[in-house]
Amino acid sequence: MKLYYSPGACSLSPHIVLREAGLAFELVLASTKTHKLQDGTDYYGINPLGYVPMLELDDGTRLREGPAIVQYVADQVPTKNLAPANGTLPRYRLQEWLTFIGTEIHKSFSPLFNPAMPEEGKQIYRDRLASRIEWVDGQLAGKDYLMGDHFSVADAYLFVVTNWAKPMNIDLSARKNLMAWRERMSARPAVQEALKAEGLAK
């Protein structure tokens, strides 16, 4: 398998999950600025949408969108318990989390990275993020991970998007449950390996 990624982008989520799963894969750097690979190949020719992540399977099949990719990876190694079994209520809870993170947190960060967005507009998204993050902090009370005692693919996604808080000057320090969860996540070997592989940690 090949994972097309950009360092620190949302593609870090499936990168972490692939390492948690213990599957063999190749990382392919796809610049989100130039939309070219390191060898100069036009990434649009591979993925017409031009963004990451994208997972290319060994048979050439390509899968886009992080929440779909992480669930696919989890289902390849069910013994790792990275996602509940298909068709169960816990699986729909997982999808609930993935959707919430994608639509309420990830997409609220996107305008903050846009230099053309006026400051007044950015403040609207900061306020929205503050309320969503406060809710997540409450959901983590008394739990090690989003789904309870065990890591799931939703944790990988939330970890990545909350990594963007500091560069966007969003202070998470008052969210004690979230900060304790982030410490647990940062200590996971797969997370450390992924961060190092993307040049985000030593």
Automatic annotation (TrEMBL):
Alphabetized InterPro entries for the sequence: Glutathione-S-Trfase_C-like, Glutathione-S-Trfase_C_sf, Glutathione_S-Trfase, Glutathione_S-Trfase_N, GST_C, Thioredoxin-like_sf
One MF annotation (Gene Ontology) recorded for this entry: glutathione transferase activity
UniProt KW Cell inner membrane keyword: no
Keywords noted in UniProt: Transferase
Family matches, as PROSITE patterns: GST_CTER (PS50405), GST_NTER (PS50404)
Domain GST C-terminal: 87-202
EC number: 2.5.1.18
Pfam families: GST_C (PF00043), GST_N_2 (PF13409)
Entry keyword annotation includes Cell inner membrane: no
Annotated GST N-terminal domain residues: 1-81
Source organism, top-level taxon: Bacteria
Name of the featured protein: Glutathione transferase GstA
Species whose genome carries this gene: Ramlibacter humi
